[in-house]
Amino acid sequence: MKTQEDQWMPCPQIETKYPGLAYLCPLNKLIVAKKRDSLHNLFGNDIIGYTIYNGQGQKVFLAVQKKETKKEIKIFNSYGNEVIHLQRRTFCLNKLLVWTPPGRFVGSVHSKCLRVFIKNYRGDVLKIKPRGVFCCARDIFSEGERIGEVAPRNCLHSIKNGVSVVFPFELDVELKSILLGACFLIGY
């Protein structure tokens, strides 16, 4: 019997400029878990596997990172298509570049002194700040207004050591994909 975590989110029938990102359109929450799925085995044993869930615990994407380099993370949909590509620069582990679809730069995530800055290709900025000195949760701000959060989560029974991001439904899918990248920079 399949559990909720074994089920894939159905692809929304939404017209979007980037069909691979249609999954992000109706969502306001993503959870990244360092958890291998049986499909990760197709990539071999020299990878770190992540499963990305929606707020209902359904799989949205799978992510793969090579163990030896840890410089690139490739995010795939249920059809096996790479939809988001994340890359750390060689000498800058606190910066992550985001391409979606792969080959099309959409923005970056940069960490500096516990603060994280999200920039899209137009230069728009979201800021992620810690709530307090001893608090792991972080708030997401746009023009000084709190619009979401990034936090460690153990919110589903079989998801351990997850990082969740909550954002407005109406947020642009490109910014949602950059915030997904922020989960990897902050949590892993």
Topology of helices and strands:
Layout: E1 29-33, E2 47-54, E3 59-66, E4 72-76, E5 82-89, E6 92-99, E7 105-112, E8 115-120, E9 125-130, E10 138-142, E11 145-153, E12 162-166, H1 173-187
Antiparallel strand pairs: 1-2, 1-12, 2-3, 3-4, 4-5, 5-6, 6-7, 7-8, 8-9, 9-10, 10-11, 11-12
Please provide the count of β strands. 12
Strand % is: 35-45%
> Which ranges are low-confidence, i.e. pLDDT below 50, for 5 or more consecutive residues?
none
Main sheet attributes: strand count, strand direction, barrel closure? 12 strands, antiparallel, barrel
Number of helices: 1
Q: Looking at the chains present, what oligomeric state does this protein adopt? A: single chain
N- to C-terminal distance: 31 Å
Kindly name the structural category: mainly beta
Radius of gyration: 15 Å
The largest sheet has its strands arranged as 1-2-3-4-5-6-7-8-9-10-11-12
